[in-house]
Input
Amino acid sequence: MSAACVFCRIIAGEIPSMRVYEDASIVAFLDIAPLAPGHLLVVPRVHVTTLFEMTESQVSTVAAQLPRLAKAVLRVTGASGLNVLQNNGRSAGQVVEHVHFHLIPRVESDGLGFRWNAGSYPPGRAEDVQRRLVAELSDRSQTG
Ligand code: AMP
Ligand code: ZN
Output
């Protein structure tokens, strides 16, 4: 619990929220400024800033509930699609520094969209990035 954290305060019941599900590990509530009706935030009770600090077990616990929550959002809103969005760090759009997963229901032509400015690699760059990532991921001393 971080007294300065809005989501910790929501979890503690100090700030009101429109909860739709909770268990021993997570709380899910309506985003106060939704991108679409039914936009949910799924938040682990433990105060962790980003995905990078979560244990595998904490991630598994949250992820296990996502399909059920997402299907409920789809059924209730009538949406035909749904984005799971998870922002880490200010540069990635994270505003609330308590890790959370957005469930955003989508319909055709809802105008939401995300800027997806796809690019391409210059010659040799993809191979360089791949080689470095494979080395990084095979380095057993890197556990976290
Ligand atoms: P992010 O940009 O990924 O950090 O998203 C934070 C989200 O938290 C935004 O979509 C906000 O609308 C939402 N939010 C902030 N404060 C509250 C609150 N008190 N209750 C519900 N949602 C909130
Ligand atoms: Zn918190």
Remarks:
- The longest strand covers residues 101-106.
- The radius of gyration is 18 Å.
- The CA atoms of residues 137 and 143 lie 9 Å apart.
